[in-house]
Amino acid sequence: MMRNKLKVAALLAGALLVNGAYAEAEEGFWGWLINFERTKEVKPVTDKLYQEECGECHFAYQPGLLPAKSWEKLLNAEALRDHFGDNAEMDKDTLRAIHDYAVENSADKSWYKRSRKIAAATAEGAAPLRITGLRYIERKHRDIPEKMVKGNKGVKSLSYCDKCHTQASKGVFDTDTVAIPNYPNRD
Ligand code: HEC
Ligand code: HEC
């Protein structure tokens, strides 16, 4: 009896240790190596404030979809007053926290594969304001007819990634997870 209890306790402790190690290893190179499968894509949003404030009008774009320079340009009081024609103002402390989170997790600071590609494509210091303006993203969507995007009531514009990428909120944009609304067979 006692032996079994000890066994269970040891197993639990082991499980906790493993989970703890994972949590610790999320960041940086070792995290990238350990979580190799997951790091094929883009790091999911982990910040609640960012998720709430930036997920109100559109899907909360992962910071790893743009370089730090872009977030610097987008996430300041003046820019947010005219954010693509909308007013997305917020109080100073919230803005600071969101700005810092975005910059710390930007494409150029991430080990995730798609972020690495975006970082490489913007390495010359380019700071595009739109993810859809990145050459890498443009190239991937060049062949989708307009009627499936702008002319599609279920999408509106290419900016609404999560309309077609069913696992966008997990940072997954793999072609296997794409389903264009109203065009189940893509033709
Ligand atoms: C009040 C509504 C609103 C809020 C809040 C908002 N946005 Fe936006 N955002 C928009 C609109 C509208 C667009 C343009 C969409 C389009 O062109 O179809 C946009 C576009 C963007 C784009 C460019 C997408 C592309 O086309 O590649 C980024 C990046 C972006 N927002 C980031 C953010 C971040 C980060 C936050 C949080 C600080 C935020 N937004 C909060 C309304 C908002
Ligand atoms: C109208 C639907 C639609 C929208 C909106 C959309 N995509 Fe896509 N996306 C696609 C399709 C279709 C493909 C190509 C799938 C294929 O080649 O089979 C694709 C491909 C991709 C790929 C390449 C996947 C790969 O493994 O090659 C990435 C990355 C991507 N999209 C990111 C985004 C991001 C980020 C946004 C938002 C800024 C977005 N997409 C918006 C439909 C969409």
What is the number of beta strands? 0
Number of helical segments? Answer: 9
Described by strand count, sense and barrel closure, the largest sheet is: none
Q: SSE order, as H and E?
A: HHHHHHHHH
Each distinct ligand? heme C
What's the overall average pLDDT, rounded?
A: 86
Please state the CA-atom Rg, rounded to the nearest Å: 20 Å
Q: Which range does the strand content fall in?
A: under 5%
Distance between the termini: 65 Å
Q: Which structural class fits the helix and strand makeup?
A: mainly alpha
What would your notes on this structure say?
With 187 residues, the protein is mainly alpha-helical. The chain has a domain at 48-177. 44% of the residues lie in helices and 0% in strands. The chain is built from nine helices and no strands. The protein has helices spanning 2-24, 28-34, 48-54, 68-74, 77-81, 92-104, 113-121, 135-141, 161-164. Helix 4 runs antiparallel to helix 6. The protein is globular, with a radius of gyration of 20 Å.
List the helices and strands and how they pair.
Elements: H1 2-24, H2 28-34, H3 48-54, H4 68-74, H5 77-81, H6 92-104, H7 113-121, H8 135-141, H9 161-164
Helix pairs in contact: 4-6
The structure holds heme C (2 copies).
One heme C (HEC) binds at residues 53-54, 56-58, 61, 74-75, 83-84, 86, 88, 98, 130-132, 157, 159.
